Amino acid sequence: MPEFEIRTLRLEEIPRIVEMVRASFDSRLGSYMIYGQSGIETYLSVPFKYPKLLHDGVSLVAVIDDGVVGFAEFRLTDSNTAFLSYICVDPDVQGRGIAGLLMRRFLAMEPSITALSLDVFHSNVRARNLYEKIGFQRSATSAWVSRSLPPPKGAVGIRSLPAAMAAFESHGFCEFDVVLDHDVTRVGLLGLHTVRCTSARSFENDVLLGGLRQVFPQLTAAFTVLPQAQLSSLKIAHEVLTLSDRMTLAI
Asked: Are the beta carbons of 131 and 120 closer than 8 angstroms?
């Protein structure tokens, strides 16, 4: 049986990685994920353009016969903890331990890490079983929630809009601060039609969202990720897209 090589991602492999990741998640969720946006390849190429800078991310691939069949993206959250942002394996080689190899290689590269966390969808039973077998334990459950936007109305201020829109034009997503009645709220754009809210408060704020729609009339939906326990307190009509569990491996 051929051996897999585990190594860091190369620039020319990014299109293949994007293809693999997009094929691995539920198509209904694509518009709510950065990997589903139009400029994700440009976004992922940025660290390669500045190789002398220190980066908080590590991207590894599994390769066999010069073809990439596995990918894992890790983020160092501090000197002792890390987060597994994404991991996927080509369906043709699933069940051969590639996900475990990718995680073990990362931990070998970063011996100071004492805890590795990740999020996994409830519907991804195969992945959940794998993580539990490795030793990950669930610590919290979150809900991915969407709603329709109210009609355009009113006005809001946006800090550093030119810089934010330059990022949006390049990557297909961005973040910025909205100023409304002296309150400052962080939000984002995901593609042409979705506002990414960072809290239940902003998700339910019709004045804020109506003002954003006045600026960006193509927007149609708001999206946020909330602790599952907060769902019962939402006062506006919404749709629960999926649930995800936060799981952590103590090293």
From this structure: yes
- For residue 54, give both structure tokens: 């220190």
List per-block mean pLDDT (blocks of 10 residues) for the chain, which spans 251 residues. Answer: 85 96 90 94 93 88 94 94 96 93 96 97 92 95 98 94 96 96 95 97 97 96 97 96 97 91
**pTM recorded for the entire structure:** 0.91
Pairs from 171-176 (Cβ < 8 Å, separation ≥ 24): 171/34, 171/37, 171/39, 171/40, 171/42, 171/43, 172/37, 172/38, 172/39, 172/40, 173/34, 173/37, 173/39
Number of Cβ within 10 Å of residue 9's Cβ equals 21
Q: How far is CA 147 from the centre of its chain?
A: 19
Q: Which residues contact 79 (CB under 8 A, 6 or more apart)?
A: 112
Say if residues 139 and 214 touch (Cβ distance below 8 Å): no
Tokens of 133: 């077998």
SS3 at position 71 = strand
